[in-house]
Protein 1
Amino acid sequence: MKTKVKLKKEGFDFFRFIFPMLLLYIIFFILPLLQTIGYSFTDYNGINPTVEWTGFNNYLAVFKDKLFLNSLLFTASSALLFMIFANTIGFVLALALNRKIKSKNILRAIIFCPFIFNNVTVGFIWQFILGRLMTDLYPLTGWEVFKIGWLSNEKLVLYSVVFVKLWQTMGYFMVIYLAGLQMLPQDPVEAAVIDGCSRLKMITHITLPLLKPTIFVCLFLAITETLNMYPLLMTLTNGGPGHASENISLYIYVEAFKSHRMGYAAAMSVILTILILMVAALQMRLTKEEN
Amino acid sequence: MGERKNVNRMIGTLLWIFCFLMFLPMVFVIINAFKTFGEVVMDPLALPEEWNLNNFKEVMKTGNYVKVFLNTIYFAVLSGTIVLVLSSMAGYKLSRMDNRASKITMLVFMIAMMLPFPVIMIPLATVASKLNISNNLTLVSVLNAGFSCSLAVVMYTQTVRGIPKELDECAYIDGCNGYRFFFSVIFPLLKPMTGTLSVLYFIRYWNDLMLPMILISKKELYTIPLSQLSFYNQFTQNRWNLLLASGLMAIIPVVILYIFTQKTIISGIVAGAVKG
Amino acid sequence: MKKKLITWIAATSLAVGLLTGCKAKEETKETQTNAETSAETNAEANAISDNDSEKENVSGETVELEFLFGDPNRTEIFSRIVEDFNQSQSEVHVTFNATGTNHLEELMTRLATNDVPDLTSQLQGYELASYVDAGYIKDIRNEPYLSYIRDTELDTVSIDGGVYGIPMDTQAWGVFYNKELFEQAGIKEVPKTVTQLKECVEKLNAAGITPFAGGYGTEWTIGQFLGYGASSILTPAAVELGDDYKKGNWSFDLPGIDMAFDVLDLVADNTQDRPFDTDVSGQYAIFAKGEAAMMLQGNWSILQIRELNPEISMGMYPLPISEDEEDLLYPKQYGFVINVLAATDEDPAKAEAINKFMEFFLNPENGGGYYYDEIGVPTANAEASPKLDEASEILQSYLEEEKTVFTYYAYEPAGFDAESWKVTVQYLNSGSKDHEQLIKDFDAAFDKYADALNK
């Protein structure tokens, strides 16, 4: 049983140490989150401050909205693709860079470099490259690859978007995997070498399993990067062609600020929150089971 | 052994080719940033007729470049400082207390980690205007800190677990007052994590578009991504040369900074990844 | 480890140091930038300075006005006008703040964060209505400067008897054509019916000339087909329904729309390779280079084309969407409307200042009068008689014969336009030529945004 004094001290400590950050967090994150829920039941349009209560109308409309499903699908596919490729490419690059290569520090720095570029700039630079430049490179070279409508083909734009995001962030994943590789306990590795294990076997049976925590971190990072990449989409494709590359975050943004339907966008945000929390809870369960 | 060396050399060469291909498109971007609008639109692959700095000068003037740069530094550094100081304090106690209240508080903090920005951006604008926070870089930074502190709180909480509790008790006996004890003893021990987090957060805040977009509408208070978006909207349909020039101006200073600090940045991320 | 912290601390202190220094220098820096911009005679875009301290000393209080400007095609010329105005006198200083494709969003953010500008642009039709409803826009029916504008041109800026905008240029949409290439293909007259248009396209193809320049990469270039090109069908129908239209009782399934979509298909089938990868600047380039004979565009493009190829011999005719020559109307509206914000009423000095500013360019004799000649298109300004670009000749004749129709665009509910462009692009991408489905898609988009008509 804690003494009264100790309890008082704990309370006091809580206030002095935890409260400042907690207060800011509540005012600037939790409160707005609750407000979003509030707005989702109204017809707020962002311009006129007077709003009317509309109950669950927005939610019903969301479930009927084909574009909402479209954006969820795009988000999920891009997240999946990005997750797979970012981790694979990052891992392979890390393996390559883990060897004794003379210029490996420079190489590492170069590959990591695009990660520090901001999303907006990366977006329109690649729009220029994949759009304008490619169009003119075809008559010049005659290579088929330049004839493809990377940003204008509804089926391909998903891959183009993931490609640009990979260009920007693969260095980040590479660095993390590199760190993980360098921290590997050497004993199992040595044992494997003595036993005469082939390189590939060593990778699949020893390296990868030992890297599990790193892999989990990277998977989580991949998902958050995908959800937050809509500034990139804004300048790369603007959700186009049509709605083919419209991410859920972009769709919410467009509905709220361009179509003046903030109540509706709020409803979508609430649904998105619930979905993400479910996925997060699932992920936590899986990690707990692992441990 | 020789074979190993050859294999390594081959892999090294492959990596160099990879890097070359990665940045080859940028060469065209750079070329076009020096052309006139007509040249860019009529023949994007050609070299400019005249190599001059006109585009860059115009972007510099139009976009009030130096101010935007400083705004971004201010925003990133201030938000980062607030987050690191307050989160380390919170993480410390959350780890030590280990009771129901602290566990619940932790979960509360973790909610924000998964949720993307659009989920709260709508009311953020209204809250901000009621509290008169928009268009005030200092207050926006405070808001930013509150909004994005989750990662820091979680990471600090974990790191503090590695610091022996005995240290706390020593101070208690010595009669050290809480804050002073924390900052003179505990905080320095958190240096590695602080290093990692400062790198991660700084990059994140530097490149953040979403928060400044909602809260800053005065052009002279723009941060770099916001200024880039404004240029994009202004120039995308009729001034590609200026747009590309502005893009280069947005990333070149960062690259220069990066060249000097890249070892620090990368090792910071490495340290965090290992702990995480 | 130590190195890291040191680098970080150094960076922080450097930044903080720079900033304290900077805040102090801010005042002096702004006056310096001011002097530089005033000295330049060819300023291209934004003037950022808010405090014209040099001029302040001359005459006491300078009234500050902010103009949140949203027309990318008029940015260059209007920034010059503002520049000239600021230089010509010292009682009023206008800060020119150009936005771009995100104009309405920026305006909305500004209004939401209570950072209201004094003047803005682009608001007309139903978009304007939401802002008027919320009380943001000033009723200028009794303002002196309104006298410059022809009464007949106030349709899209009038709501319930009040006037909420100043229309400037007569903006029209149609088909630009290259006169030389037409001659080359043996086309003697511009097409006035759908059949004639088809013949025209055939002749061009026979001569090895690409008929249309397409820029679908920028959605509105082809998306405007509905809002502008089909106006002669859509606008009268919407006007006739009146209140019913506002309630959302509307469908795009109207007589003649099928043939209009045939024309859309015709255009799409006869553009250059890869129109989806070409954006609007690419479209201008193709037309300006003479690689295509025609392009569907608005007359706001005239300035851009002249910049790319000053010598080009071009004209612009209305797109025929029916077989009836008599029915052919030129879709027009005001692409450039200036709106005054209601908040300016709070400061009596501002009303006077706005008057002065408006006089500067609305009166063609004043310093800003060169606007009308440079634009090269007809204007809503009764006093100005602009020198027209050759591309505006046909439009002028249609205006004189009163064979014009207000673009349906002005009647679209807020948010519908961007969605309709996407619907159009998706339709073209699919290649299905399923007109019925297209109508359904447009209808669905309309229903989604129809509530906005009532706000």
Protein 2
Amino acid sequence: MAPTTATGTPVARVQQAVAPASAAGTRSAGRRRGRRVDPVFYLFLLPTLAIFTLAITLPAVMGVFFSFTNSIGFGDFEMVGLTNYVALVGDPAILASYGFTMGFALVTVLIVNVLAFALALGLTSRIRAKTALRAVFVIPMVVSGIIIAFVFQFLFSNSLPALGTTLGVPGLQDSILADASTAWIGIVVVTAWQAIPSALLIYIAGLLSIPGEVYEASALDGAGGWKQLRSITLPLVAGYVVINTIIGFKNFLNSYDIIVGLTNGGPGTSTRSIAMTIFSGFTSGDYAYQMANATVFFVIAVAISLVQLRLTRGKAAL
Amino acid sequence: MPTPPLPSGGLSRRTMLAGLGGLGAALALAGCSAPGGSGLRSRVTEITFYQTKPEAIPYFADLVARFNDAQSGVRVVHDSTSGIAAGFVRGGPPDVAAFTYNLEMARFMERGALSDLGDLPEAARIRPEVQQLVDQYATYPGRTSVLPYSITAASVIYNVDLFEQAGVAVPETWSELLAACETFRAAGVDPIYSTFREPWTVAQGLFDYTSGGMLDVADFFERLSAQGTEVGRGSGASFERDFAEPVDRMLQLAEHSNANRNSRGYGDGNLAMAQGQAAMLLQGPWALAEIEKANPGARVGTFPLPMTEDPADRKVRVNLDLALWIPQSSRKQEAAREFLRFLLQPEIQDAYNRDFLAFGTTTTAPPVTDERIVGMQRYYDEGRFYQGASKAIPLTIPAENYVQGIVTGADPAGTLRTMDADWRRLAFRA
């Protein structure tokens, strides 16, 4: 009997199939080495490259340049070297905004991912009206952030205290946004509410990508629901968790519209985010100083993303 | 895989895509063209006019229409914005503007961005005390860069009916004010309605009134600027020292406010005054129109907040609600000046100030007649006014937020020290 490979194809036939293929490969590789790349591929890249450079790279470089000046946004300016950066390091308002934004981003990323994963598990199981429920849960994503913020600000300032007073709940008698120690909770709740749908969609995609046979095989081996979740589901969606965490953290570092609509940095300056501080430079004449702040923020954000990618190397699904 | 043969005689995909692309490009280019037609009828000079008050938009739209109809040489395009910095940064400010004048506008003025209007005859009619308000923030030597158009005076809005019912007279000293608050408390009425959720109401109300009634605000900031990076260390002007007592009295007044003050906003305050829920509201005359909308029959008046035991110390807070200017970079200055002089005609300027409960800036301006603000007329005539402290602090230092922090529980002395430190840092950078 002729020797066969695992699937039963005679070895000789496989060898025959491989040989011409490799010959064709070397022939085409030779062709590739000798021939120029069709310039039309560069032409395809050109519009995107031009727009990206004009709209993103060039303004960023200009911003970095202005951070070494004392410009107020227009008119004459002088180069002042590193004065802005030196002043930045000793400014407690800026350091406080970094502290608040980092802490807020960490807490929100955790909450969003846990809740979105739990929801995704529910929405990919065999419940009724799955599609309708998925549509409902995606609605927060399509509403503008500032509108959500103003509506929730009204709810927190009026409806929730009214409910709290009627039911006699101790912490809810007055608006939680009016107290510096609880205002961040309101912001976390609203940001999470808006961010969960996008994480949810990614987790649903991840859960649906797990083949059903794996679960069947584990059930045959006697694994219960909880064991399946821990040993099958979580390792297989680890890549999607990584994506959501990196993207989510970056987005929450940039939070602006929800905070402006809810508390506008108040009470006092307890909920001022980095983006709010940077943006205030345009309207307050502190342009160059906030450009320095923005440059430092950019470096920090890139560093955090690189660290995250390094820690999760090889596990990203996409 | 070979492409299927094109249908003969019909529209090929390539032709259709080319056609759509051409149509899209044509539409995009059409969108880029100048609005309102251009070029052919160039004898009509078109100028842009910006104005900053949202509630005055219909009023000014009407004025612009009148001007456009009355002559054919200049056509004014009316637009509105609240952030003028972007226009200057882009190099495209309006040709003429009616804007609130404060520290932020002064930045443009001191860099020579505004043209000189001193040669206009209307400039000579401005009251000297009012022109001084402009100089308080910045000057560009040798130029009259802005012409004040409308001054709003702000003080305490009070409910006349509630005062009469409780038998309280308008307080003229600090102790009379505190006694009035006690009387209202005993009668079950909130003495003051506060809206701490919105920082600007605290800054322009409690903070500015208490500091303006006890300090010489203009002089304080002059001394503060002179010290630069030495503020707060040793002698001289500082927030920590000079504002300690005004802030303390501000907190006393906050105590006499409604219990839910931390979560109330500007609109809630106006509604509460209209419904007679509180006796006093520390808000400017812009709220009077809102109160009237909620309850046309509400009887309200105004009196300056007394902060000392001497009634002669009482002053009202003013701000240059509208000031007219023409940017130096405008290429249509002649046409812009025509519109400017149209606006500055007494019948137009006086009518505006009357309709918007503001005070005129010229020597010939008539006294106000509206009973709600007539109480402030004599203070304005006698020059007993000041510009608010919160408006003299650069926006880099979030003074409004700091003040909101103080009234919602932050340590007053610590916050004032922070303001000194911020001022030092700003002086170091500038």
